[in-house]
Design goal:
Largest sheet: none
Order of helices and strands: HHHHHHHHHHHHHHHHHHH
Helix content: over 70%
Number of strands: 0
Shape: globular
Distance between the termini: 19 Å
Structural class: mainly alpha
Strand content: under 5%
Oligomer: single chain
Amino acid sequence: MNEDSHISKKRIFGATVTVVIVILLSKISGLARDQIMAGYFGLNYDVDAFTWAYYIPNLFRILFAESLIVAAFIPIYSLYIKKKKDLEAKIFVNSVTNIMLIGFIIISTAIFILSPQIGMLLSGISGNKMDMVKFVMMNRIMIFSLVMLSISGLAAGILNSHNIFTVPSLAPFVLNIVTIVFVTLLFSDLGIYSMAIGVMAGSLLHMAIHFPQLRVSKLRYRPIIDFKHEGVREIFSLMLPILLSLGAVQLNNSIDNFFALSLGAGNTTALTLSWRVANLPLGVFSVAIITVLYPLISRQAAGNDIKAVKESFSLGIREIGYMMIPAAAGLIILSYPIIKVLFEHYNFGPGDTAKVSSILIFHSLGLVFFGLLMILNRIFYAFKNVKTPLKVAGISILVNLLLDWILIRYMDVGGLALSTTLVALFNVVVLLVILRKKVGNLGTKRIINSYWKILLSALIMSGAIYIVWKYVSVYAYRNLAWLIAIMVGIITLGAAIYIGMTVLLRMDEVKFVMKLLGGLKNRSGRNGGDNDR
């Protein structure tokens, strides 16, 4: 990791601090949005209708925009930056922008027209209990958010390639806050439709906040499309494998949601809420690490620096384990009180809490695998190897379908979450074996040495918080204030025990946390950051 790579270790830590702060704000605001939705509307078919109406444009956005940008656009654009081919970069970016605009307008229009047919399908799966009219109305309100959020994804890819991470990470926070404002103001008059209107307004601002900082790229918009451009042809050659491989997670989620819809009212939303809670530590720490490391890994791969790629991979895989294993343990032990604090009010009752908390246990078991899968996929894409993840992803879809069908017979909706975890484990194991065969030793000894220390520390932490919670839980349910205070105390105690154990075991990974905390302290007294310069 040298200056020729455009970003030093010091800047990796500095950038990660900022990304962690901003993503944390985004995730917390997302939970606040979900709290309001659950509290105002509960778990029922009307909320399921919104969940599906939002899921469809969001699915296309992730499949086409985020997947292509992360896996294809950033490596190609980063190479143009490294080689200082400014004219080539301008033609490439403008061509991709215009192709995306035309493509997503066509896709959005098609979904808008076909909304009644999609609604009939979903209503049929629910036993004709989900309100098709509400689904169609909300889907049509939100569908053109696909265009705006896709352009946001492209803008984020450009900024990340220039080592600017704050604004792209802040955009979801803006979307969530705008949605919260609209729901709070309009829910009494418009009901569940206020969620859809809020999402559409938030999507507009989500896109707009990227534009001011795009000046760092020195790019100017031009209405051109050069299909013969080398970079454009390369993206098209990578598009189908990338869509299928990175989109496999989303396709698996779709399968899960179809099964959940067939199990009764509120199950689709319950599954979604559980995933949102599990995704808080995953989105804050794993995504922050990968967001900062991936452009670096792409440049190292472009320079065929295999040793540097292995070092970056080892850093990422160890830090993900360091963060995700204790987070998973905490969520499993405290799943019920966490869901109670977050969602149980107004129309969201104790039965809903029990359902979502049981699902959360099975989602939490897979946190470390979800994080590892993120970085493994990106290692392959950095080398422009899309076929291997594609084959593994294709098999995983079949595995997920089979597991869903089997597990819901014995575990109801919780079986869908367990299936998701098992599929992630399957993907990680297969990709690790293949990657080791292709590039050689991945620093396995160092990774194993870190992981046994992580597991030991997490086990001791888990024992402590389980015992403490067992004795104080009788006082925790007196009122919400008591429950929140006790939960904060237990989480703080668990974090202190875990970090203390890793310090005693002299883990290298603890240095990352110390630098992270040091960065937080230093940034509290000043504005800005190196990563945006």
